[in-house]
## 1
Amino acid sequence: MKVRHQARDVDPDSASGCADIRTRFDDPAFAAAYAASHQVSGPPQRYFSSRLHAVFEVLGRCPGGDLLDVGCGPGVFVQRVLDARPGDFRITAVDRSPAMIVEAAGNTADAEVELVVGVAEALPFPDASFDVVVAMGVLEYCDFVAVLRELERVVRPGGTVLVSMLNPLSPYRLFEWGVYWPLLRLLGRAEGLLGRSADRRHCVPKSGIRALPAGSLWRRMRKAGLRPVDVVHYDLTPAVPPFDRFLGKWTRRRERPADTVTRGLRRWMGTAYLVVATGVR
Ligand SMILES: C[S@@+](CC[C@H](N)C(=O)[O-])C[C@H]1O[C@@H](n2cnc3c(N)ncnc32)[C@H](O)[C@@H]1O
């Protein structure tokens, strides 16, 4: 495993949503907790395993080659690729946060993976270097136009690009962002007025997330020079937070991974989606 720090010239403030979220991703304790949330049963784990199913369905059609994971976080996806497709891919993973790269290095210690600190808006790789480019859970924090242009630049002609995005039109996200989080923030403020100490108050930090509906992301990918070919909605749930926790417990026993993703009528229930595109140039 090689770890490289490489920054191309980019304004750090244009490269991420807001200082708040940047600070959290840069915190080693947050990086470790984020990695652990993939294992603990609950909504995040439900989300991650559904997304993994959707991504591996697409990866199954890729014979192998050079794979880039953009915004790799603590390297959980890289780990899964190494386990599921040993020897098929030469993997490079890049993230803006050194803490995430350190965590990824720990999680992939025995493997031949190149880990790079760098930003998605100015990827430190030559044109047409990768057969598969994956950007999961990262576009929401970035300059869409710059990142999509970079994904298009580094993928080889005929290569595959997979981009995930939270679905802002799903009942889950509408309720989470419009009702649930604002209510928790209000509750935290009320607790403050009543004298509860800061560490015991409800707190939802500003997420810095900006999300696009699937049609809009599809058009932006085409504008960036990619050829979108497929959209898969995943993490299907008719419930909204926090009730999905209880419904989830009840339904998960019977749920098969394939039932948590769709290309059909149930897509409105997907809390997120994946757009698959092909490199053209
Ligand atoms: C929500 S985490 C997703 C991590 C991983 N891809 C996953 O799906 O589990 C978002 C990651 O994107 C990284 N990130 C945010 N803005 C970035 C940027 N402009 N360039 C590169 N990485 C960025 C963060 O440091 C963080 O590790």
Note: Residues 15-16, 25, 71-73, 76, 95-97, 100, 119-121, 136-138, 141-142 surround S-adenosylmethionine (CB under 6 Å).
## 2
Amino acid sequence: MSASASPAVTTIEIQLKDGKVSPNGDRVDLNQGDQFVLDITSDRDDEVHVHGFDKGIEVSAGQHVRVPMTADRTGRFEVESHHPELLIVVLQIR
Ligand SMILES: [Cu+2]
């Protein structure tokens, strides 16, 4: 394997459905500099909030959005929905 291989992109599939969220609090381990994509489908109007990144993603009922992001900082960051407030994943970035 080449040592210069570019880092893989981690896709985090998120479903907002029937008033619930999936995943439901799972931890996602990333390394600083990694790229990741929040792949969100929703059956309701909601906002997905990436804490620590000051990123709020508005989603509409029936919508599918893909949001590419870069893990440009380290720490533990919660990703949650706001209507209702539910923890989706925790990003653990080292
Ligand atoms: Cu929030």
Note: The radius of gyration is 14 Å.
